[in-house]
Amino acid sequence: MTDRTEVDKVLAEAAHHANSSVLAASDLAGVGDPYFPVDGSDLFTITHHTLEVDFDLTSGMLRGVARLDIAVSADVPAIALDFGLPTQAVAIDGSTLAPRVVPGKLVLEPDTGLSAGSHQIDITYAGLPGEVEIRGERSWLNTPLGALAAREPHAAAFWFPTNDHPSRKATYDLTITVPRGFVAVAPGRLVEHSHTSRVHRFRWVTAEPVASYLYSLVVDRMRIELDTLDDHGVQWVSAYGDGVNDSAPSARASIETTPTVCAWLVTLLGPYPFDAIGGVVTRMAGPHALETQTHPIYGDHFFRRSLDSYVVAHEMAHHWFGNSVSLSTWNDIWISEGMATYLSWMWSEHNGEGTTDELFSSFYHLRAANPDYWRIPPGDPSPAHLLSTQVYERGAMATHVLRRSIGDDAFISCLRTWCADHRHHHGSLSQFLATAAAVSKADTVAIMQPWLFARRRPDPPPGVLTPADLEPPSLRFIRRTGDPQSPRPAGPSR
Ligand SMILES: [Zn+2]
After folding, report:
1. Residue among 132, 329, 291 at smallest CA distance from 215
2. Contact residues for 333 (Cβ-Cβ < 8 A; gap 6+)
3. Which parts of the chain are coiled coil (predicted)?
4. I want to staple 301 with a disulfide (CB 3.0 to 4.6 A). Which of 98, 287, 296, 407 is the partner?
């Protein structure tokens, strides 16, 4: 346990050690993402994070020791990590240095610079992640029963130092200590867990690289269940927070559809890319979920009425689109969200609960009278509308037009080729359309232009159903997933 006096002491000590200074433009030279230009850095790559973290729920204090294995591509005078907590000690290759702290960045500037090649950075830190604000965002949530760091597009730098961009993925080995009675779940396999009279300790290891925004953490009073899923040794991890009592049966029934949903996705997209799978359900106020790698995090809101395998299909589809194949830049969000939404439509069709033609036509007509809706293009929605309804719905509509234009065989071939060629890497929207063109011999850029980039409602495509054809009873998917006239709130959702 840590009292407030000690919290203040640690923060004061950290401020003393950190050499805060004037902001330099070069400190904020990120990877050059069109939407979030300050994010990350293209001067170096973190290959592996080793994190040892202790989180005290009473005070909200998080103490950590991070060892980052990095690769620097060319000699540089300095590098900047994305990080918002105060540091107490920093060393590169064993030599200590005083970092410069600028908002959301930790600038490391050794006297002799950094040479091209491999280096090791050690950082000791402590602070209150719930009070960290980076460029106007707060992403660490202290909840009534625990804490949650799960937000798209930014959550990592609120609790560990990293290179915070999906094009800069790395592996992780996290050991986290929480008070006894609490469970901490992070991506990957749970390889060790132990306890003393005071604390529980969990060690989570990822064999495959993870985009930093998908390296989520849930600390909660939870029941955690482990199993081995199949002959390949994939580890099953499911966890249900104590706060989800009312919806626990339907939450469990929904999460337990994951292997079935995944087996169906494998038939479409190719092998499952990871060595762990499952889901975490925790109490949340709204309908939020995130495709946290290997164990998506679901708010219990999804399961309050009944079983919902569509949110499971969406989050697991991300394990190919968004997780294994990450975004090269955030403006290409359609490849992740449009595709995951469309695959949940295909899951509806597979289950006889509304065909993709019916779903496409329903949304196309439902949004007809709303010109503002069509002003946000899913192929370039803007940072403010990154997770807007249009990215999901219009994104899925665009995907349906692509499928109907090039045919089922070419469409599935495109998806499988994309997932194989970019496995555990990243890709851009233009590369995706090039893949679709290569397998179909069609002008996919021309086909997709109005559906991805137009700021008006595209003309109806061939085969669109009329409103008279669309009997509401056939659209169980829409009724299950909510009123499509009421857009979901932006945030860490789906
Ligand atoms: Zn999603």
Report:
1. 291
2. 327, 378, 381, 386, 387, 391
3. none
4. 287
Q: Which residues of the chain have pLDDT under 70?
A: 1-28, 471-494
Cα–Cα distance between 444 and 415 in angstroms, integer?
A: 14
In a domain, 489, yes or no: no
Cα-to-centroid distance, 235 and ligand 1 (Å): 23
What whole-number distance in Å separates Cα of residue 106 and Cα of residue 17?
13
Q: How far is CA 235 from CA 92, 189, 228, in A?
A: 35, 6, 5
Residue 125, domain CATH: 2.60.40.1730
Distance 337 CA to ligand 1 centre (A): 5
Task: Please name the residue that has the structure tokens 């930790």.
Answer: 106
Residue 252, both tokens: 């469990």
Residues 6+ apart with CB under 8 A from 1: 56, 58, 59
What are 365-392's pLDDT values in tens digits? 999 999 999 999 999 999 999 999 999 9
* Cα gap 317→311, rounded to integer Å: 10
**Domain ends where: 319, 337, 364?**
319
Distance 494 CA to ligand 1 centre (A): 4
Ligand 1 centre to CA of 20 (Å) is 38
23 in the same domain as 107: yes
Are 276 and 294 in contact by the 8 Å Cβ rule? The answer is: yes
Q: What is the reported pLDDT for 285?
A: 80
CA of 54 to the centre of ligand 1 (A): 30
Q: 290 CA distance to ligand 1 centroid (A)?
A: 7
Per-residue pLDDT tens digits for 212-254: 999 999 999 999 999 998 777 899 999 999 988 778 899 999 9
How far, in Å, from the CA of 204 to the mean position of ligand 1?
24
Same domain, 256 and 313: yes
pLDDT at 22: 45
Q: Which of 90, 84, 125, 120 is nearest to 102 (CA)?
A: 84
Residue 126 half-sphere exposure, CB side, CA atoms within 13 Å?
Answer: 20
